[in-house]
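cron nightly-structures :: item 1 of 1
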Amino acid sequence: MKAIILAAGFGTRLKPLTDKVPKPLLPVNGVPLIHYPLQLLGKAGITEVVINLHHLGEQIEHSLGDGQKMGMRISYSWEQEILGTGGGIKKSASFFSGDPFLVINSDVLMDLDLTQLLRFHKKHDGIASMVLIPRPPHSCFSWIQTNKEGRILRIVTTTEPEPTETFIYAGVQILTRRFLDYLPPGPSCIIQAGYQAALKTGEGIFGLVHHGYWNDLGTPERLKQAERDLKFLTPYA
């Protein structure tokens, strides 16, 4: 299986830290942030990776090179204009010769065993499998509703009242090449353009709920929290 790491964003919520350094290279306990998803991939035996780049991307390419020092084979997909989560994946479609492939955000820290996600996806045989976490109180993220079998029923981006138990997307997913048919060329959001369209046609989309550690490093406060947390997390030792 191959993977793409999404690393093209501006890191707006982390300004001014990201004015001169791209978010994926911000240090967390002295280690560039992007090394953590790379480590998760390597532990699952996934070594062929493409990274999409835009904001200060030359620094990321210079830092990681071809990935040989990390036991990886890394290539890059440059975006002249930023394409969003859907557009960046769509542009990289030629890299994924096989089916399915894994997508992971460059700014997520979690202690997920990716082989568990691979087994989950194979079992359900859907068009996509998302990693979910229970929705924290007062979360600003879209909420996701599933049935007892883990099939995703709705992804809601409005202020609509939500059911008792909902989840949020954790930044890791497995997609099939057929899923890419739902994404238009050019800039797009994978939730709006991809998942919402696929759900409307009745496609099988499933969610694996992760109850372990998760941190979306989108703010300075979350970066500081990660510094404290990583001292106690074994997956990144």
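cron nightly-structures :: done
Residues 2-236 form a domain with the Spore Coat Polysaccharide Biosynthesis Protein SpsA; Chain A fold (CATH 3.90.550.10).
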